[in-house]
Amino acid sequence: MAEGEARVQAAVDGLDYDFRQFTIPHFIAHIQTLRQRDIILTGVSFDRGLHGFWVQADTADYVFFNRRTHEIHQVHHILHELGHIVLEHRLRDLAAFLPPELVTQLRVVIAHDLQGHCRQWDPHDTLEEREAEWFVRCLQREILLTGRLSALTHPDTS
User: Fold this and answer.
1) Nearest by Cα to 76 from 33, 5, 34, 138
2) Which class for 6: exposed (0-12), middle (13-18), buried (19 or more C-beta within 10 A)?
3) I need a labelling partner for 60 at 20 to 30 A (CA). Which of 52, 107, 112, 122 fits?
4) Helix/strand/coil percent split, the chain, to 5
5) pLDDT digits (tens, 9 = 90+) for 122-153
């Protein structure tokens, strides 16, 4: 196993989730229960270079994904950001990665101090990005093994 893979598999196992019931809303509800924090999922039309990001605010976690991408990619990006949350990755200053006009809007609506993760750079450039990708792969494997492929290819993200 590569560096971090065992940690990711342990985190997925530790979720104690029944993948036979997998849908995006059901999985998010499960994580919310475990963490005792709301997760608010929002589709936004980003430029093509921005896939998604997570903002950790005082009272909730916000996961944004690019509406302009195919539904399958949207699910992948949502699960990737959830991986950062579940794996408790170190927060980054999102103002350094997001477009300035988006930063301004988010500071007004969510939090002045924008801390989280941004899926804009190469998903393999840091250990945390690789771990978030392994998290997605572990989930995809469980979802496929339990016959829930349609939840990945025709997601209900409302």
Assistant:
1) 138
2) exposed
3) 122
4) 50, 15, 35
5) 555 788 888 999 999 999 999 999 988 787 77
